[in-house]
Structures are given as C-alpha cells and as structure tokens.
Design goal:
29% of the residues lie in helices and 23% in strands. It is an alpha+beta fold. Helix 2 packs across helix 3 and helix 4 packs antiparallel against helix 5. The termini are far apart.
Length: 286
C-alpha cells in the first residue's frame, strides 16, 4: 500500500532548515502544509509589493473621486486608467468572462458586482470596490468599503464591523499557525453582532497567479486548514452580511457573477493582501 505523498520534502542530501523542521513536524501530525512553491522568494515578494503599491493607488484614486450621482461604469474607468497609467493590467478584465476591470458591489450585492451605466450611486449606499492589479506578472488584490453621503446607523455599524473582522483575522494570522485560526477569530467577532459570515466564498493565496492555495475561510475552528509559513502571500477578505450568511447569484446577471445576500439585506467586505513573515503579517495592498 502506498503512503500519502508528502507536500513538503527535502532534496537528497539536503540538510533541513528550521523552517523545514517546523513544517515537517506538522505534516507528520497529519496537518495540511503548503507546497514549497507557495513560499515566495525575496524577488517575488518585491514584485508583489510593487504591484501592491499600484493596487493601493487605484483604491486611493477611487476614494478621491467616488460620490453620489456617479454611475459604477465611471468607477471602472477610474480604476482602469490609473492601473494602466502606472504600468499595470486589471486582473479582472475578461477573467473567466468577467466583462469589466473592477468589481463594484452596492448594498445587498456581496461581491462581483459588474459596473454598469444604470447603477448610479446615491446617498445612503454602501459600496465595495474590489480591484486586482497585475504588474510585471505579479498580482495584488484588495477592496474597500465606501459610504456614500450619510447612511443609517445600522449600515455604518456593518461597515465598521466588517473592517474589524479583517483586522482580528489578520491579528490571528501567525507564523506556523493555521488558516482556521483566522476564520475562527473573524466568525467570533461577527457573532457578537449576529451577523452572517459568507461561507460560499473565501480569501486565497495570491502573487504569481490570481488565485492560489490556500483557501482562507472566514469561519471555522482553530488549528484547522493549511499551516501558515513565512513567505506565503494571501488575502483575507471577510464578507459580512447584516442577516443570513447565505447568498445567491443574481438571476438578472447575464454573466452569472453578481452574488446577492439570501435575504437581500446589506453586506460589507474589506480585503488586504498579506505577506506572512516570521513576526506576523505585513500588508502588501489595502
């Protein structure tokens, strides 16, 4: 009977480093560990960091220009122009049929909202703008929430708590901890407000591709999921619903992308790209 193939292995004659010993210890305990290609080299990290600077600049530009009365197609143009003007490429554009450069999700749209001339922002809306940049082959991914004008106290709280969920998830991400530690911390915080954490979508590894291992669930239990090792790059992006965690795809979306809350109550999401270091996470795009 063949044994289970190891994900982390040494070359013949290679002496194990301290990292090797830690990873192999947990693999020996039956835990899921990364493959070596998920540990980015210093050169790759620098490339992702530069992509992250452009990606953060895109969202800064949106923050300067977003306002009531603009349609979401204008936001798409702002993002495209800034990204391309700084040497990048919008990763979303034509990705698996997605027709625009950015996801703009309003109120009950959880994520993957497609920019349209007919979607006009109005006072009271809460809006997620989610952008991913490719620069010299390296990917960086982030999203922010924007409140248009004055909204309700309930929506203000939702936006604030969603950001707190990202922050407590990042705090829970420790070297040689587990992805499940992140989800556990996020779910615990959201539960205090009786909010639903979307389970059908998750964070992910990123850097050399748009989506890599690991899947970063935003709910769950400590000590589960993949081992977090210095050099890994991934997103944390909790989608926090005012009501149920359940979602559905908008039947009126001809492209099959837009995700709506199951009870059509508002949703909020913040996303950063993180690098795991020996001391915790470093933000590469926000």
């Amino acid at each position: 009977m063949f044994g289970k193939k190891k994900r982390w292995h040494l070359q013949p004659g290679q002496a194990p480093t301290e990292m090797d010993e830690k990873v192999m210890y947990w693999e020996g305990k039956g835990k899921l560990v990364p493959t070596r290609d998920l540990i980015k080299t210093p050169e790759q990290i620098e490339g992702i960091r530069k992509s992250g600077v452009v990606n953060t600049g895109v969202l800064d530009e949106v923050a300067r220009k977003i306002h009531a009365g603009m349609d979401t197609l204008e936001i798409d143009r702002i993002c495209y122009d800034y990204c391309v003007g700084h040497g990048g490429t919008p990763a979303c554009l034509n990705y698996e049929g997605f027709p625009k450069s950015v996801c703009v999700s309003i109120n009950e749209v959880v994520c993957h909202g497609i920019p349209k001339k007919t979607d006009v922002l109005k006072d009271g809306d809460i809006v997620n703008v989610d952008f991913t940049t490719i620069l010299d082959g390296y990917y960086a991914d982030a999203s922010r929430m924007f409140i248009i004008g004055k909204t309700t106290p309930e929506k203000e709280q939702l936006v604030r708590v969603a950001k707190e969920c990202l922050e407590v998830g990042a705090e829970a991400a420790k070297p040689y901890g587990f992805v499940g530690d992140i989800g556990h911390a996020i779910q615990k915080h959201a539960d205090r407000y009786h909010y639903g954490i979307v389970r059908d979508l998750c964070g992910h590894g990123v850097g050399l591709q748009f989506h890599e291992e690991p899947e970063v669930l935003h709910f769950g239990h400590k000590g589960t999921g993949m081992l977090l090792v210095p050099g890994m790059v991934f997103t944390i992006e909790p989608m926090v619903n005012m009501g149920t965690w359940k979602v559905f795809i908008d039947a009126d979306d001809e492209f099959g992308w837009e995700v709506i809350t199951g009870d059509e109550l508002p949703s909020a999401q913040w996303e950063h790209t993180f690098l795991m270091t020996e001391h915790g996470v470093e933000i590469l795009s926000y």
